[in-house]
Amino acid sequence: MGAEGNVGRGNGQREHTLCLGVLGPVRAYRGDQELPMGSPQQRALLAALLLRGGHTATAEELIDAIWGEEPPERAKAALRTYASRIRKALGNDAELLASESGGYAIRTGRAYSDVALDLDIATAHVSEAEKSAASGDRSGARESYAAALAQWSGEALAHVPGPFAERHRRRLTEWQQTLLEHRVDLDLQLGLHTESVSELTALTAAHPLRERFRELLMLALYRSGRQAEALAVFADTRRLLAEELGVDPCPELTVLHQRILEADPGLALAPDEPSGPVTPKPAQPAQLPAAVADFTGRAAFVAELKDQLAQAEGTVMAVSAVAGIGGVGKTTLAVHVAHAAAEFFPDGQLYVDLQGAGPSAAEPQAVLGAFLRSLGVDDASVPEGLEERSALFRSLLSGRRVLTFLDNARDAAQVRPLLAGAAGCAALVTSRIRMVDLAGAHLIDLDVMSPDEALTLFTRIVGKERVGAERKAAMAVVGACGFLPLAIRIAAARLASRRTWTVAALAEKLADEHRRLDELQVGDQAVKATFELGYGQLEYEQARAFRLLGLADGPDISLQAAAALLDRPVDATESLLESLVDASLLESAAPVRYRFHDLVRLFARACAERDEQPPSEREAAFSRLLDFYLASASKVFALERPGERALDHLVQPHSTGTHFGSRDDALRWLFSEADCVLSCVQQAAERGMLRHAADLLIAIKDCADSGVHSLRYERAATAVRDAASAVDDALAGARVQSMLTHAHIVAGRFDQADEEARRASRLAERAGDTLTTCWSLNQRGIIAICQSRYADSEGFLLRAIDAFRADGNRPSEASALCNLSQVSLEAGDTNRAIWLTQQGLEIYESLDHRMRMANGRYALGRALTRADRIPEGLEQLTKAVTLFRETRQPLWEGTSHFRIAEAHLAAGRPGQAAAHAEQALALRGIGGEWMRGRMLTVLGRALLALGQHDRGRVCWKDALALFDDMGASDAEEVRGLLTPAPAA
User: Fold this and answer.
1) 565 and 621 in contact (C-beta within 8 Å)?
2) SS3 letters for 631-692?
3) What is the 3-state secondary structure of 824-859?
4) How many CA atoms lie within 13 A of 350 on its CB side?
5) pLDDT at position 501
6) Would you give the distance in Å from CA 228 to the centre of its chain?
7) Which long-range contacts (C-beta less than 8 Å, at least 24 apart) are formed by 416-421?
8) 62: burial class by Cβ within 10 Å (0-12, 13-18, 19+)?
9) Pairwise CA distance, residues 670 & 680, whole Å
10) 639 φ, ψ (degrees, to nearest 5)
11) How deeply is 362 buried, as exposed, middle or buried, from its count of CB atoms within 10 A (0-12, 13-18, 19+)?
């Protein structure tokens, strides 16, 4: 029979293909149509023939296979009837069932090349897996084993009677489990240990005496940094085997236990294996910036650095400038060296500008997130904390040869979390300070160029003919530039672009000390004179664009945002910005995105303060940028929250903002622009534009829930709150404190959230702000639920519902209804809870409110579960998971998995509960560490029910530590779980 494809329905087989299955219920399909195979005994006959590989079975053998020792009186007649019915069901393929010598056989051959048996397909995939494994192709072997396992659609020969079926059912089940062991083993070899924990937890629950699954679970937990749980699995296994079978664990399990106790380095991934939650074939980033074609001099430094990098024994390469001098060529040198040494790092090169010289240096946590994604880690698998991200980064680079280029670092503290620390890897660091406190670093003090090097660089840019004719003037130029590479490059570029200028004319301009570097120790203003020279050559529109672009603080700026700031059409803006790129005064960070070098930005801003007159022009430009961001973010808000009245209460922007073709486009814009928008919010606070700043925070509130931008969002909101408080702006203060309340709730800081909510409520009353009044009531109701103050919560939420109805805000009314359902659940009134959530869900569905619909299904799933209508509850929670995933809400997705785990635990399915609790922990959840503690508590209960007592107690101890640190009341429940019951 054919061994291609799958047997199940909808498998893409041609309509005339006959698909037969024994790895599940015995079935037959032609295309997508299932053929009627009749009674269990009739299916038993078909199974007995399919499992004989085309050989003839006598009537006596088939009778014995179907009925065993107690056949009916007319067994042969029944056999003939079953065979006739099978032929009829097969239709055009009836001759497939042949009668021979009083027996039967299912014959195949060329005429039946379109007949597929799932068992044959699985066998073929296993053969391919074994060949791949033998050749060292672990990824290919894993894929083939997974394809083989995909042929099962349930228990083999399900519901088929008879001793023959029972024997083969046991055989095929054992084979399936063996294939699972092989595939999971390959998962661990490929570094997928974190993802494997959930599956192995479920497998050990389903097959508690199968020691190989336990062994793999211990290894997966250990490699995931959960050593205590790994040891607890062994303790649980030893106790279970002693109680059930009276034996000790197998030698392999015992040896692994000892190796874990000793933290045996051999348990880490082999050097040639990728690590971490990545794809089987690890990503190989090649992120080095382009090297300059006219790189000049520095031969001794190049040789020294290349030699150090070639050794690659975990040593950190640090390139730093003389203190305070910018533009000395640190990055240019490092890029040149990195390209020269790239051959020593075949597994990739990472690059980041750490923005250490600017007011907002890059956060190591954010940088690590970008690095992990570049190395193949998906968003859901990126840990939240700095230490966890740094640990995963080190694990991913273990055994690989990767160069990390950390450009423009602020200090050693910013760099340390970004170091791989593994032999075979190296880091190349540039900074304005000498990093004497960076342990193990090879330090180089990079000075200015020698006169000969400086003249060579100038000549390469301007041209030999022009310099050769005015060599003395050329030396005067590079001397006036202080032999500083950046200053030389800018001066030479201007001269090269002005064919009518002479070198002497340029030298004369630079002779004026006010127009060139005056002293090296001026720090960040050291190259101001050179920047002035370039700025002075710009046309009016170019100069205006240069000045005004310097007003924006973000890491870069999009073409559309720049057009709004400049108040020019997009096409004209692009031409202006590209001309500034050509003038070396602006960088093209990516297509239609631009950024300043940090020194140039400061210079541009100084020019704006000096030359952009009257000052109201600067304020107008920044207001246009703020207005653009508010308009675009408001569109995202409207697409994500149809029917939400909040936008009616916000400042109405004059800009049209960005056009979005879909909700997905809108979300992509929001999360890609988040850093720029949040920088703009902080600037608006500093400039006193508090109403716009507060309203923009409302429009981008999804950033607070994202996990990735949550900390930056909170910092921006805090800046707006403090500024509003300083000038006693009640309206802006009320709104931003409502957003801070939301941020604290997401992070699980409920006491702080309550304080902010109280202040927001008081300020909203002073300002007469309906929006904040409504939201604060809803938020205080949520906080009261989390603090077990259910009577208070009901009062707040009932008032919130009335307020939202009065405002015509139906989505928020639905939110408050769903929140109120939780109060009813705690009171034991499940009927009312279900009724409330159904009301809320109906509102969301009527508005096609996809994001909030997920919250509604989540709330309904909880209520149904508590009402002991668990199948219905699970259906709603599963739908909520899908919707949260589609709307990029990983924290809510994790919280939903936690509720699914609770439901399975209530239904007596601890294996499935443990698997979902593991998924919840991986995704994290709304409520920060408090929610993590609750997830660990449920996981511990599930593990205890599975007999894994020691591992369960480890989870409870971790949960207790979290609750104690927070002062959460949940600590008492967990402490009770850990306290042994008194003897009777």
Assistant:
1) yes
2) HHHHHHHHHHCCCCCHHHHCCCCCCCCCCCCCHHHHHHHHHHHHHHHHHHHHHHHHCCCHHH
3) HHHCCCHHHHHHHHHHHHHHHHHHCCHHHHHHHHHH
4) 30
5) 83
6) 26
7) 417/364, 417/365, 417/368, 417/386, 417/387, 417/389, 417/390, 418/352, 418/364, 418/367, 418/368, 418/371, 418/390, 418/393, 419/316, 420/314, 420/393, 420/394, 421/314, 421/394
8) buried
9) 14
10) -70, -35
11) buried
What is the distance between the alpha carbons of residues 8 and 166, in angstroms, rounded to a whole number?
Answer: 23
CB 703 within 8 A of CB 674: yes
Cα(351)–Cα(449) distance, rounded to whole angstroms?
Answer: 25
pTM: 0.61
What does the pLDDT read at residue 358?
58
Q: How far apart are CA 273 and CA 495, in angstroms?
A: 53
* Peptide bond before residue 451 is cis, with ω within 30 degrees of 0: no
First and final CA of the chain: distance in angstroms?
65
Answer yes or no: is pLDDT of 164 > 60.
yes
Residue matched to tokens 């940090």: 598
User: Cβ atoms within 10 A of the Cβ of 725, count?
Assistant: 16
**pLDDT value, residue 800:** 94
Tokens encoding 472: 């003395």
**Tokens standing for 202?**
């479920």
**Structure tokens that stand for 244 in this block:** 């059930």
Taking the C-alpha atoms of residue 176 and residue 146, their distance in angstroms, rounded to an integer, is 11
Cα 950 to chain centroid, rounded:
31
For the chain, helix, strand, coil in percent to 5 are 65, 5, 30
Question: Which tokens is 900 given?
Answer: 């699914």
Q: Residues 89-118: pLDDT tens digits?
A: 888 778 788 887 778 888 754 445 577 888
Beta strand residue intervals within 68-185, DSSP E: 97-100, 103-106, 115-117
Grouping H, G, I as helix, E, B as strand and the rest as coil, residue 248 is: coil
CA distance readout (Å), 454 to 28, 232, 533: 81, 66, 18
Residue 450 Rama label (left phi>0; alpha psi -120 to 50; beta): beta
- Give the Cα separation of 755 and 390 in Å (integer): 33
Give the CA count within 13 Å in the CB-facing half-sphere of 725. Answer: 12
Are 518 and 536 in contact, with CB atoms under 8 Å apart?
A: no
The alpha carbon dihedral of 513, 517, 522, 527 has a sign of positive
pLDDT per residue as tens digits for the range 721-740:
999 999 999 999 999 999 99
DSSP state of 12: -
Give the whole-angstrom CA distance, residue 254 versus residue 262.
13
Instruction: Report the percent of the chain where pLDDT is more than 70.
Output: 89
For 153, the token pair is: 């659609």
> Which residue in 189, 172, 238 sits closest to 209, CA to CA?
238
| Helix spans in 867-969 (H) | 870-886, 890-906, 910-923, 928-945, 949-966
Beta-bridged to residue 587, according to DSSP, are: 595
Burial class (CB in 10 A: 0-12, 13-18, 19+), 217: buried
Predicted confidence band of residue 305 (pLDDT cuts 50, 70, 90): confident
Q: Compute and round to an integer the Cα radius of gyration of the chain.
A: 35
User: Could you tell me if 777 and 803 are in contact, meaning their C-beta atoms sit under 8 angstroms apart?
Assistant: yes
Q: Report yes or no: 738 and 772 within 8 Å, Cβ to Cβ.
A: yes
For the cut 90, the answer to whether the pLDDT of residue 416 exceeds it is: no
Q: Which of 238, 235, 255 is nearest to 247 (CA)?
A: 238
**Residues 190, 668: Cα–Cα separation, whole Å:** 31
Helix (H, G, I), strand (E, B) or coil at 118: helix
Q: Do the Cβ atoms of 420 and 397 come closer than 8 Å?
A: yes
Average pLDDT score over residue span 939-963: 92
Residue with tokens 């922990």: 921
What integer best gives the mean pLDDT of the chain?
83
* Residue 718: exposure state from Cβ atoms within 10 A (0-12, 13-18, ≥19): middle
